[in-house]
Amino acid sequence: MEALAGRVLAAVRQQALIPRGGRVLVALSGGGDSVALLCLMAELARHSELSLVGIAHVNHQLRVPASDEDADFCRALAAQFELPCVVETVDVAMLARQEHISVEHAGHQARHQCFDRVAEQFGATEVALGHTLDDQAETYLLRLFRGAGAAGLSAMRPRLGRVVRPLLTIRRAELRAYLTSRQISFLEDPSNLDRQVPRNRVRHDLLPNMERYAPGVVERIARSAEIARADEEWLGLAASEAAVSIVKRIKSGVEVEAGRFASLPLALARRVAKDLLSQVSRKAVGFDQIERFRALAVGGPMRIDFPGCRAERTRGMVRLVTRRGRGVPTGSERFQYRLEVPGEVAVPEAKLVLSADLVGKDSVKLRPSQENGLPLEQAVSADVAAGPLVVRCWRPGDRFRPLGLEGHHKKLQDLFVDRKVRQDERSRVPVVLDGTGRVVWVVGLGLGDDFRVTEATASVLILRVRSLGDKL
Predict the structure, then answer these.
(1) 45 phi/psi in degrees, rounded to 5
(2) Are residues 282 and 188 in the same domain?
(3) What is the pTM for the complete model shown?
(4) Is the pLDDT of residue 427 over 90?
């Protein structure tokens, strides 16, 4: 195996991006990074480290006729590798106007929707993107300039649902040298030279100057992103644990003990405030809003209106409620959290922590599950579970196909009745869903038949539950 492919494989294994034998779809733009990604994934496939199932390309229609030529290039390259190729054409500029979003955001949205569709079509367990170490450093700096916190400075995650980035430890120049040594052609997008685009100014002006003053700065910036990502994951879990004792759920929002909130360490208080504001308002939360909430809790104004919610301080409590007419949450919508793979998320409403780990089927060794106690584990076929996972409470109308019912659907409400779950406890039972909204697991009560592990399963998700506050 070539040295560069060996380094990519080491990163894939270290970060659990692709299980041995995983079915990989390559997102191909035609640029140097994605072409190198395709070649490297093909090399790993030749060594039986993974299975390469196809190529996906999105024609954004932004540079006609050049964008059509890009699509033709990707089809031709796929034919050389004897791989199926799906090309989807999207008028991204029109989509941006219709959705009132930036062209960049519209393009991102169109690409990932395409990747999800093609992954389902080919039965792919992972979608590989060609982002590099340089891309990671650029993203970090762009977010730093916007004043981002740890979440933003985490930059690009190696894995997000089934999307994986195997090249985040590799420099762009190394990929170019790899392609040159093999005389492999690729496309140059002239828009990447447009200095009006902030990322291009960072790429072509700022980072080269920083390298002159501090050689190796790109690697150190990427390392800072990795440190921020680990800090962010811990802070999120710590904030959820802190909220258990100081936050009370009410019908229209939450009540927070002002004194105990004010005594939290500053970083923890800010994260608790951010989580509460976003959960109640269902909107993005900025730094200024977080600081205004903290000021109210420690004795500032008695009432503050936020986008989508209102905070009032009375008798030592801060009540944060959804503003009337802005989507008041009902009793069956008390919580919803994203569960990364791999990763974990605290569910304070159920006083539990759920985790997800991706493993090969041969390595599955479960501890006995306990339906009336913890720990509890469940093996799930990762081949059919479309990420990212969602953990939320039961909602009226939820149904799934439980094991043993020969393919028939069953309402979760009927499952609760059969398993004698009291009505006041049902809204606290975590339900795990995949990215398409299918019920994967009703924690402690039932696995969806679609997600059972079979002889044909290549990779497995291990879902685990432990009590909030317990250590593994």
Answers:
(1) -65, -40
(2) no
(3) 0.70
(4) no
